[in-house]
Design brief:
This protein has 17 helices and no strands. By secondary structure, it is mainly alpha-helical. This is Divalent metal cation transporter.
């Protein structure tokens, strides 16, 4: 889940808003962490207790709702995965000088290879863990090198100069919106971690997933803040690359290549796996051949990138739109938490329901505001 969240969109959104808000972006990160935890704890618990995937839960709550959720998640996942494939291509371009298109094709073949292995699940988990460790370590190095004003960042995280609603919606959407919050929940289900007895492990995993993604976000924010605080300008065509290069020179640029590739390839894998998990139960042939459907999903994402490309603003847009999907999916999960035909005798904690309800209402309000007030400004 954490490495699914940390993709090219994650890197782009974080640096884009750090340049815009400077130290006050710390408040956005803090708010997003709280909302992320509120969403993910509820979703993962109900998936584990019901022992069903999200689309099947939604269909039990409102007949047909599962199909709508699946369509929204798969469409958002495909849009994100085009950016993920592009990011992988860009990472290899930085490292080896290949064209982004060639790098994307090579990366897609590596991702496809993982799903063609018999032990695909275990290989996917281990690969994601290794890449996550590499990303965080390298980004920490760049953050230290850029010498950010940490004290100011801490203060502005609680007393910001400005509150940017678009940034909050985009970050939450990019961390637990769309397919991402279900990545870990569905993976635990497939790994056999389910039922009331597994709840302590599920809760611990849901919080640690957000924590890992947030640590990466904070390190990247500090790295970008160090650059912005020096009065240096980021390249609008590739903001995260600027941060690494301006912080640590040519070595920093190569580090960016590694981080971008690791972030992108793990997100290609996580996005494809989770998006397909939303349609697996709709037909027995999809369930039987789901690994090949995942391969097709990756191939389609790669083809679209090769034909269309991936502008920076589209990644910000998709993150914001994923934030709009969250109130719907989380709202359905909260209703399901009190349906005996779904969760049996399980009693969902009231404080968790209230926490989730706050996330649903606040994200719905901020999401609608963003859709009509803020997003148009981004494209004018």
């Amino acid at each position: 889940m954490a490495t699914s969240a940390i993709g090219p969109g994650f890197l782009t959104q974080t640096t884009f808003f750090t340049e815009k808000l400077a130290a006050s972006f710390g408040f956005v990160i803090l708010m997003s962490i709280v909302l992320d935890i509120g969403a993910q704890m509820n979703v993962w618990r109900i998936i584990a207790v019901s022992e069903r995937r999200a689309q099947d839960i939604a269909n039990l709550v409102v007949p047909g709702m599962g199909y709508l959720v699946a369509v929204l998640v798969v469409m958002g996942g495909l849009a994100f995965n085009i950016g993920n494939v592009a990011g992988a291509g860009l990472g290899l371009n930085v490292l080896f000088g290949t064209t982004p298109e060639t790098g994307a094709l090579v990366s897609a073949l590596i991702a496809i290879g993982i799903f063609l292995v018999r032990e695909a699940g275990k290989m996917m988990d281990r690969f994601a863990q290794l890449m996550g460790f590499v990303m965080i370590l390298l980004t920490l190095y760049v953050a230290v090198t850029s010498a950010p004003p940490v004290g100011e960042a801490v203060i502005k995280s609680f007393v910001p100069d400005t509150i940017d609603v678009l940034a909050i919606v985009t970050l939450v959407g990019g961390t637990v919106g769309g397919y991402i919050t279900f990545a870990g929940g569905h993976r635990l289900l497939d790994a056999g971690v389910k039922g009331i007895g597994a709840l302590p492990e599920v809760t611990r995993s849901s919080v640690s997933g957000i924590a890992i993604a947030s640590i990466m976000r904070i390190f990247l924010f500090l790295a970008a803040l160090g650059v912005v605080a020096q009065g240096l300008k980021l390249d609008p065509a590739n903001p995260p690359a600027s941060v690494f290069q301006l912080s640590a020179g040519e070595i920093g640029y190569k580090i960016f290549g590694i981080v971008m590739w690791a972030a992108a390839i793990t997100s290609v894998i996580g996005c494809a796996y989770t998006s397909v998990s939303f349609i697996r139960t709709f037909h027995h042939k999809i369930e039987k051949n789901y690994r090949y459907v995942i391969v097709g999903f990756i191939a389609l994402s790669t083809l679209v990138f090769l034909l269309v490309g991936r502008p920076v603003k589209i990644l910000v847009l998709v993150g914001a739109l994923n934030g709009l999907i969250l109130p719907l999916t989380l709202g359905v999960i909260l209703v399901a938490a009190y349906r005996k035909n779904i969760v049996g005798d399980y009693k969902h904690p009231l404080w968790m329901t209230i926490f989730g309800g706050v996330v649903v209402v606040s994200m719905a309000i901020m999401g609608v505001y963003t859709l009509f007030k803020e997003l148009p400004k981004l494209f004018t």
